[in-house]
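We now fix the convention by which a protein and its fold are recorded. The integers have meaning only within a learned vocabulary of local backbone shapes. The record below shows the convention in full.
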Amino acid sequence: MTKSRVLQKLRSGGFVRVAGMNRLMDPWLAELIGRFGFDVVWLDMEHRPMGYDVIDPISLACRATGIDLMVRVLKTGYSTPMRCLEFGANGLMVPHVRSVEEASQWVEWCRFPPIGRRGFDGAGVDADYMLADPIAHMRHANEETFLALQIEDREAVECCEEIIGLDGVDLLFVGPADLTISYGAPFQFDHPSVQKAIDRVASAAAKAGKWWGTTAGSPESAQKVLDRGARMVTCGNDHVFLVRGYQSAAKEFGDLKIR
């Protein structure tokens, strides 16, 4: 059974750098991300078309370089977290958690007793394919699996203190784009209401002795959120890098002429 690099860094007072895989579902890319020194691969099932079958090989590539795999899940019910965790995810990100009741449900699904009511199988990657002692596996899963709940709606902000206070919730992750929309200020990221909401999330995490994170479009913006107390920041994803790369190539080669 593997230990979570994310939790190790957070518990030691560090921060976590996230790299997303949204389009290229090849294990070599996950391994490459690990070789560059990122801490966790973010696999996005919410907005992308991949199926559960990609988790196994991607998680294997992550383990090869000692980094974590975080899956942003499909909110389709109990089987979603079960499959992601048993196929090798070290952590789950749940989008649009809007209430304490919903947050409690995800804790129940993701954690073994006494914290939650996760069902036991013991044959997955997380249990070393049945080689792990069952009791040790349950304890290890509760201690070395992280649960990140996304705060993307104003109703979630209003109860973020209760959400992060739940045993079994490790981290709040602000989704800034949807948060601006929820506050009626689409993509106005510096809007006072949006900034006040982020401050409230940061304060709630600090008071609970837990962590929060968010997206960052540049090293400068990442540093700003780190200075505000965030401990998980995104550094981009393959889709963004591909678009930017092709845009740059089109510009650089656009002035070619036959001479």
Q: What stands out?
A: The longest helix spans residues 192-208. DSSP finds twelve helices and eight strands in the chain. The chain has a mean pLDDT of 96. The longest strand covers residues 16-21.
